Amino acid sequence: MSRRSGNCVRCCLVIFAVVSALAVCGPALFWRFKKGVSLGDNKSSCPPCNCDCPPPLSLLKIAPGLANLSVTDCGSNDPDVKQEMEKQFVDLLTEELKLQEAVAEEHLRHMNITFGEAKRVASQYQKEAEKCNAATETCEEARERAEALLIKERKVTSLWEWRAQQMGWEGE
């Protein structure tokens, strides 16, 4: 059943894609076809245009002095303006360097805080690991003592059983 519905959905998507393509491209194809058919008439609905328009005015004709201005050329002849521009450039560079230094100091501060936090957490984990090792050693020692006592108890029990057999005390 799902294979059939999957094929149905696929078929619907293909039909939708074809209809969408025709909706988008159809009008352009229709007008191109219509224009191609009407070219046989060679009659146009409007006569050709005769334009006696003057050429557009250029910026050079309106204000010829504007053509010589450029940002790099501005104030290059005036020593006071040139010196002020250099001061501004140096000030901008100085400000940029100060900003980069401030960013570097912020990164360094953040790194130091993160490093200190990492050291603190590592120390805490080390302490927990030492506690765990000590508890494991204590547990291992207790297990060894219990094992030794169990062996000793088995020996005493087997000795009592043997003596009981020798003396005929079985089952009492």
TrEMBL record:
Origin superkingdom: Eukaryota
Protein name per UniProt: Ubiquitin-associated protein (DUF1068)
